[in-house]
């Protein structure tokens, strides 16, 4: 049976696209100044390519992914798919869930067609022929390089992706029926095969050899162009599959998020493996393949690369990751700390730069007591006086019973320090010199603690348990189960009235937590607090994988956004003791906000995009020459290691466009060289130091 195309739509809009406020050049961001989950990538044979991700981030490479620079994006919405024609990336298409853009002659135009509703996936098959696979809605087809589009009809509901082994031959599954095109998607014909269950993924090596995988988690294979299919193994080999692709008739590879899988017998048996990348983040649902090489985009700016055979992956993103930043605190306006997994970060310049030290094991929480960082572990509580070079036990021997180290700590309004653990609390009335243990037997693993005054306190734990005290924590009363999973924060505006959050929902109480109701202004939230000497409440609003700083001037009744938002999931936040900055920490990033700027709505100063510097020879055994822009103001060159530590700094001679940097005495590895001019311009390049 033949399913023909119907319903043609002409171009709706042709316009200059206004540069967006995508998450690039983010001022005060660590470890880099762009923030995105990368969704798609395309690199042509010359090495010119682009990657796109959430919050409109668009980046460009001219050297096959070795270095990347900021590219003006036509949108600040999430970029879902992008593609270039076989002739090269001088022309390209970019899709969000709401709009479709085309770039030609360095000019973006919007080419969104009628009924457009999904970013989907773009397949640019010839210089003129493009298929836009629009999720479950089907697909649209362009024969003029993405300017005008025509809707494709199957006469059925699309189940799988579309696989094009050639520019004219393609396959998909709709209502369990395998369909085939031999005219570049102009029409589809049923092959005669109907699969017993719904199919999620189909992929062909050539016009005849293909594989599919469906809801039964089993692989099937065809060798006759989809007419007949054979089950390869009755035993389930893989689940939660994001995509698979054949490299040959015997070797297939697959992505499962943070793990990979491979088969060397044509898909009969599979072996799961690792990408062997430290702190690897989830690999996305799209990839770019060029010959035997693979580019894999992923979360938190991640870009992985394999030169051959889906093996020996390396990072192409230009910095070393830590885990998620789950705690952050400052002892003064300049000195602060953050924890991520088994790493303690410290800053002495208000977050302009951070230095890493190992904590030895995964930390759970962080606080500042008497100017020193206190790090809470499952089986200990420690402090450091030298930014994490050395650690000492915080509590005296014999105070904490076995298995009863605390999970959270807060100051009371009167200055007393109160730690809350599973069945014990520990209170100090002399600024941490001595502590008294209090047995409360609540069996709680606390995630958040709040003191309204010296007597009234409230606590939530990771298992949704809730308790309160009216006698300063000498005893605690357990209330009803909190309605939201994985609570993140609790805050009370009176003894009886308060609110609490998890990552997606806000709940209100007017009876000290005996009942909770969903707020009408529903949102997830973290780290709600007062600024010193300020009655306003500041907090971090979470909307999926984005966050904004918010403020209430009426005790939590109404909220207003103070920032445009950053594209990462928040985990913690803090205001510096002098009230100058609010820091948001979370999944992969720390961002500093100037409090006076965001409160007064003063536009933030836009910084020039970081330039991609040139370095040669690269790799080098010692001295490397750096090309820098001509500058009439002073400028400096700094060398950083993979942990972000500045190893050396030198001035650039005024009026010179080259400077030499010696890596003598440094071990072999990858170093970031950064150029900064007094006029605000900056640039960077990665340099590899090799052996002699």
Automatic annotation (TrEMBL):
Tell me the leader sequence span: 1-22
The record's section on CDD domains has: Sialidase_non-viral
Which cellular component appears as one GO term in the record?
A: photosystem II
The Photosynthesis system II assembly factor Ycf48/Hcf136-like domain, residue ranges = 161-238
Residue ranges of every copy of the Secretion system C-terminal sorting domain listed in the record? 616-680
Keywords, in A-Z order: Photosynthesis, Photosystem II, Signal
Q: What is the top-level taxon of the source organism? A: Bacteria
A Gene Ontology biological process term: photosynthesis
InterPro entries assigned: PSII_CF48-like_dom, Secre_tail, Sialidase_sf, WD40/YVTN_repeat-like_dom_sf
Is Signal one of the keywords? yes
Q: Does the keyword Signal apply?
A: yes
The protein's name in its UniProt record: Por secretion system C-terminal sorting domain-containing protein
Organism of origin is Neolewinella agarilytica
